[in-house]
Amino acid sequence: MVRRALSAALAVAAVFGLASADAPTCGEGSKCPQDTPCCSAYNQCGVGAFCLGGCDPKYSHSLDSCYHAPSCKSGDFQLKTLDDVQTIDKYLGDASSINWVSQGKPVVYEDSLLLTMAEGTVGTLLSSTHYVWYGKICAKMTSSQGKGVVTAFIMMSDVKDEIDFEFIGVDIGNVQSNFYSQGVTVYTNSANLTVGNTVENVHEYCVDWQEDTLTWSIDGDEMRSLKRSDTWNSTSKQFDYPQTPSRIMLSLWPAGLPSNAKGTIEWAGGEIDWNSQYMQNGYYYAMVKEVSVECYDAPPMAINKGSKAYQYTDIAATNNTVEINDDLVILGSLYATGEEPDLGATTASNAPKPTKSVDTVPGGNPGGGNRNEDSQSSAAANNGGGGGGATATNSAGGPAATSNGGGSNGFQQGPSNQGSGTSLEPGLGKLSGSALAIVVAVLGLLVL
């Protein structure tokens, strides 16, 4: 069964995008207006962080609205501290200085990072600042456990090509693999992969993504492979195969919220229990120790004009419409966009100032991928932003973790947390939480 995903989104998490009630939306047949030109993964229009990772060029005001995605960076990324993690409300696109952006509450624990999820939050997402356009990507990690709890390791492009490992909290002996092309949900793309205990044991999960083949492996053992030639869609006259530059996303999200679609709740094993035995110190958690990336060569049809950034040249958004150039875009402020990158910068004294409140930071956890039940519903739970300096004490025998500022703005572990969707009020020079309805975009991989 194929259905067009209504909310643009995410990689491993049910998504709650916070934006102003009157903020314009974007999607099929509707592009963002010039004053809020960037279409986020939540199908909301804005500026600032809306124009960075997850900005969809197909539905933004123009192909220049989104920043140019920083190109692939090979390396072994040891996630032992938050030194290499910046919150979404602080990151302005300079991937040379930071490798990971966070939403929610990542915390340090025993030479690793915990992705946490407390009641009243939508969990935690870590996303890479550099994109991968074919390569081998591996994560050493554990999953969380419990009804309605989903952990994910996915690749997601700005036009919603997607490759997934997803861990359902009631099935710790299997992991679900999946793939999508440009946000079109094909539930039959899913396949279960058997693995030892995903909670107690650290496993290495790898995606070997090449132009013509895609392989999922666990602990060095090939578990599933896909040929591009087997994905031809005779209706759309193209291959339904992930083929565009993608970010790495690691997340923990509450698929079992009562406000989510019935099919998503059932897929996740039922409604989430906020008094579960699997929670420690007030939150569910999954652990990530290391991510490794081996970049492969770009496809031969790529438009080569440099090596530093990827940029779409056509809304078809296939691999022959991606240009590699040296035109990196770093925003001058959260007022700025790809079209006006210096807007609001303190060094740009002559830059025009905004004349009205605009949304600058999309809320939510976009780690849930493309699971969307073709419905959007209001939710009572606000998204977790993040904050520094919080310490979780070890009162229940589980991990005690310390946050040193890796979460996003305003996060509290509990139901009173503020939303991470933010607006920049002209003349005030500060960020304030959007006091508005939460749009739920439930995304993921497959229906069992």
TrEMBL record:
GO terms for biological process: carbohydrate metabolic process; fungal-type cell wall organization. Keywords: Glycosidase, Hydrolase, Lectin, Signal. Pfam families: Glyco_hydro_16. The lineage of its organism: Eukaryota, Fungi, Dikarya, Ascomycota, Pezizomycotina. Residues 391-403, 410-421 have a biased composition (Low complexity). PROSITE patterns: GH16_2. One of its GO terms (molecular function) is glycosyltransferase activity. CDD domains: GH16_fungal_CRH1_transglycosylase. Residues 64-276 form the GH16 domain. Residues 1-21 form the signal peptide. It comes from Lophiotrema nucula. Dual chitinase/transglycosylase that plays a role in cell wall architecture. Chitinase and transglycosylase activities are coupled. Required for the polysaccharide cross-linking at the septa and the cell wall. More specifically, transfers chitin to 1,6-beta-glucan in the cell wall. Residues 342-425 are annotated as: Disordered. InterPro entries: Beta-glucanase-like, ConA-like_dom_sf, Glycosyl_Hydrlase_16. One of its GO terms (cellular component) is fungal-type cell wall. This is Concanavalin A-like lectin/glucanase domain-containing protein.
